[in-house]
Amino acid sequence: MIYQTLRLILLFYNMRTIIRFPDFRNFIHIFDDVFIKKIYGVEFVQNPKLIVDCGANIGITSLYFKLKYPKVKLICFEPSTLAFSYLTKNLSKFDRDCQLYNQALVGDKRARAKLAGNPAHPSAHLAEGEKIGEYEEVNCTRLSDKLPKKTKIDLLKIDIEGMETEVISELAKSRHLENVQQAIIEVHRQMLNSKQIAKLISLLAKNNFEIVFKDGNVHTFMLHAFQS
Questions:
Q1: How are beta strands 98-101 and 73-77 bridged, if at all?
Q2: Could you say which of 115, 118, 172, 218 has the lowest number of CB atoms within 10 Å?
Q3: Residue 56 CB contacts under 8 Å (≥ 6 apart), including other chains
């Protein structure tokens, strides 16, 4: 049944490509969120020209955007070496329209960080003073250092496991946030009452964004911010 549903959805999107993944269970979970539940589904006045995917993992969300909006340009960030290798393969058909960075996003100028957790799983995160077991040393960058200047960003998608506030804060300071028309940010349910989320909402509000919370999955909400 799963394979039949997957095939029908891909046919609906006229998808003539192969999706590669390191773990089938994780793939089905992401595919269900993105293509069936459409947690990143937003409305645009006109078809988007530029979408930035922060925490692209193996590229399922980027594929969704590219199939829905064939002319859109994508800028994608993924710190995990393993996940990035699949991201590169899954978007290879659209390489002229995609800029891919094998880097973690941070709000400061650090060059390296430790990525903890399963490197292929979307829950892999930068270790911030915690005790960790296995980890991968990854390269870091500030988002503002990679974005084109004075260019409208139709959608900023963020799923970076705890670094959201830091990255949005740096975008506001560098004035790149002014160019963002919409943002959709994954927020874990246990973080909803935290100071970090309160700061994130305050930052967005001060930069003229209206905010709506939508259901994501059993573990997350989606914070949808759009210019008022």
A1: parallel
A2: 218
A3: 62, 76, 77, 78, 83, 87, 100
Q: Please enumerate in sequence order all residues whose Cβ is within 8 A of that of 210, keeping only pairs 6 or more positions apart, or say none.
A: 225, 226, 227, 228
What local confidence, expressed as pLDDT, does residue 4 receive?
46
- Dihedral sign for Cα atoms in the order 183, 212, 83, 164: positive
**DSSP one-letter code for 119:** T
Q: What does pLDDT average to over the chain? A: 86
Residue with tokens 């270790």: 127
Domains of the chain: residue spans and CATH: 2-227 (3.40.50.150)
Residue 36 has what DSSP assignment? I
- Tell me the mean pLDDT in the region 146-167: 92
Q: Reading across the β-sheet that carries 73-77, which strands appear in turn?
A: 98-101, 73-77, 50-54, 155-158, 182-188, 220-227, 209-215
